[in-house]
């Protein structure tokens, strides 16, 4: 259950929104609770004045005390106070997701020149803007927050998959939608949507999403998590795994397990299908199997760790295995200490990856520069002696920059 309290001098406007359509139904169902508080009720009688002239000249400013009393009146221990302001943090889907995890949001609407800065200073957990333009008051912005956040509350929107597929929910723009009739004014619905092949529909939708985002909003690709949009799988190959797991065993079991654990978690967060270790010797592969079973026993979160790891004796076998599995030649991204690297703009690489239908393989410390589709310079950007441990750091940086790690939380709290 989410509670919204809106502090506004124009309560009727807000009230009507909470009693209409999807939001109205959610209130009736008890999924949302709301109150609307008028600061005028907390202002000094007889005139109950809530605004006054700006010091130094200018228009009217909302007074601090009536707003403070109104907020104190509705405030619960879990409440977050949000002042709507064109100068605030810009609202986006990531921020909406974070706001939806709160229990009680108090939305304070400004008017005229704005709100007395001292109220903002003492009371606001966050100032929030709905866009780089100026409106006459905070009421519409408050309702935008209410609406966007409510859609993320379980049960408010009928089908949750619809919300999951919306623009920005997974990072890119939504695909186009069609309804009956199948031909309207001579324009036909794309054939694939009429045939009932769910796999083909999903592929078509993913491609349309990518194509739309590339043509309309290439800027949002920078921060998007790409794995859900890839046609084929994503893989990580760790080339000189022998250094860590080889016969010399110069890494103790504890350190080697930590290394496996880090490589697996990073790959999982990026949505990789496998971490492939190149290990020439049977004894090396045997040691890794033993370490994985130890990891499984000690860490419940890594119960399936052996499914994430594949071991092969050489890089050709790794590529061959991926090709066989994905029925498509892998697109090889090489990162290695020897790599001179083409100057690659990470965003360009993202766009390339999104536009193709091949599995993508990130190769670390493998001698594949010549055969790679693209070579990246050391992603950490500094020169130092690289080994298998820094290889794992490189994986993290390269995957984070290229693929992304899924949703990021936006902290709601005082940042001043
Ligand atoms: C005319 S505006 C004040 C603008 C203020 N003088 C400034 O330039 O930053 C009045 C009120 O409308 C609300 N408002 C206007 N534009 C907004 C936006 N883009 N996002 C959120 N709130 C906005 C705020 O509550 C603000 O206090």
Automatic annotation (TrEMBL):
<feature type="binding site">
    <location>
        <position position="110"/>
    </location>
    <ligand>
        <name>S-adenosyl-L-methionine</name>
    </ligand>
</feature>
<dbReference type="GO" id="GO:0052906">
    <property type="term" value="F:tRNA (guanine(37)-N1)-methyltransferase activity"/>
</dbReference>
<dbReference type="InterPro" id="IPR016009">
    <property type="entry name" value="tRNA_MeTrfase_TRMD/TRM10"/>
</dbReference>
<comment type="subunit">
    <text>Homodimer.</text>
</comment>
<keyword id="KW-0489">Methyltransferase</keyword>
<keyword id="KW-0819">tRNA processing</keyword>
<dbReference type="InterPro" id="IPR002649">
    <property type="entry name" value="tRNA_m1G_MeTrfase_TrmD"/>
</dbReference>
<protein>
    <recommendedName>
        <fullName>tRNA (guanine-N(1)-)-methyltransferase</fullName>
        <ecNumber>2.1.1.228</ecNumber>
    </recommendedName>
</protein>
<feature type="binding site">
    <location>
        <begin position="130"/>
        <end position="135"/>
    </location>
    <ligand>
        <name>S-adenosyl-L-methionine</name>
    </ligand>
</feature>
<keyword id="KW-0963">Cytoplasm</keyword>
<dbReference type="InterPro" id="IPR029028">
    <property type="entry name" value="Alpha/beta_knot_MTases"/>
</dbReference>
<comment type="function">
    <text>Specifically methylates guanosine-37 in various tRNAs.</text>
</comment>
<keyword id="KW-0949">S-adenosyl-L-methionine</keyword>
<comment type="similarity">
    <text>Belongs to the RNA methyltransferase TrmD family.</text>
</comment>
<dbReference type="GO" id="GO:0002939">
    <property type="term" value="P:tRNA N1-guanine methylation"/>
</dbReference>
<dbReference type="InterPro" id="IPR023148">
    <property type="entry name" value="tRNA_m1G_MeTrfase_C_sf"/>
</dbReference>
<dbReference type="InterPro" id="IPR029026">
    <property type="entry name" value="tRNA_m1G_MTases_N"/>
</dbReference>
<dbReference type="GO" id="GO:0005829">
    <property type="term" value="C:cytosol"/>
</dbReference>
<feature type="domain" description="tRNA methyltransferase TRMD/TRM10-type">
    <location>
        <begin position="2"/>
        <end position="222"/>
    </location>
</feature>
<keyword id="KW-0808">Transferase</keyword>
<dbReference type="Pfam" id="PF01746">
    <property type="entry name" value="tRNA_m1G_MT"/>
</dbReference>
């Amino acid at each position: 259950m989410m509670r919204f309290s809106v502090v506004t001098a124009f309560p009727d406007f807000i009230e009507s929104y909470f009693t209409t359509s999807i939001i109205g139904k959610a209130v009736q169902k008890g999924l949302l609770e709301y109150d609307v508080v008028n600061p005028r009720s907390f202002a000094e009688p007889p005139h109950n004045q809530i605004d006054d002239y700006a010091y130094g000249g200018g228009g009217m400013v909302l007074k601090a005390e009536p707003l403070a009393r109104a907020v104190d009146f509705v405030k619960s221990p879990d409440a977050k106070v949000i002042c709507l302001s064109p100068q605030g943090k810009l609202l986006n889907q990531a921020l909406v997701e974070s706001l939806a995890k709160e229990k009680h949001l108090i939305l304070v609407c400004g008017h005229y020149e704005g709100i007395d800065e001292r109220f903002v200073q003492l009371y606001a957990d966050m100032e929030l803007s709905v866009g780089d333009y100026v409106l006459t008051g905070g009421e519409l912005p408050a309702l935008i927050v209410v609406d966007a956040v409510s859609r993320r509350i379980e049960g408010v929107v009928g089908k949750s998959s619809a919300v999951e597929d919306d623009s920005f929910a997974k990072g890119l723009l939504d695909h186009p939608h069609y309804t009956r009739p199948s031909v309207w004014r001579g324009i036909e619905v794309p054939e694939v949507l009429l045939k009932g092949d769910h796999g083909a529909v999903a592929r078509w939708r993913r491609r349309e999403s990518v194509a739309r985002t590339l043509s309309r909003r290439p800027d949002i690709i920078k921060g998007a998590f790409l794995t859900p949009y890839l046609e084929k799988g994503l893989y990580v190959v760790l080339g000189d795994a022998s250094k860590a797991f080889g016969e010399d065993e110069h890494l103790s079991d504890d350190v080697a397990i930590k290394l496996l654990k880090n490589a697996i978690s990073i790959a999982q967060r990026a949505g990789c299908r496998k971490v492939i270790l190149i290990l020439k010797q049977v004894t090396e592969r045997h040691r890794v199997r033993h370490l994985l079973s130890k990891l499984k026993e000690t860490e419940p979160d890594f119960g399936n760790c052996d499914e994430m790891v594949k071991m092969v004796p050489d890089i050709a076998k790794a590529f061959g295995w991926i090709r066989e599995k994905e029925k498509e030649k892998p697109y090889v991204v090489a990162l290695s200490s020897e790599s001179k690297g083409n100057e690659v703009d990470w965003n360009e690489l993202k766009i390339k990856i999104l536009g193709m239908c091949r599995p993508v393989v990130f190769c670390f410390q493998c001698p594949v520069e010549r055969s790679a589709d693209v070579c990246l310079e050391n992603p950490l950007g500094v020169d130092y002696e690289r080994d298998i441990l820094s290889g794992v750091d490189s994986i993290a940086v390269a995957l984070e920059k290229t693929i992304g790690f899924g949703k990021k939380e936006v902290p709601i709290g005082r940042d001043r």
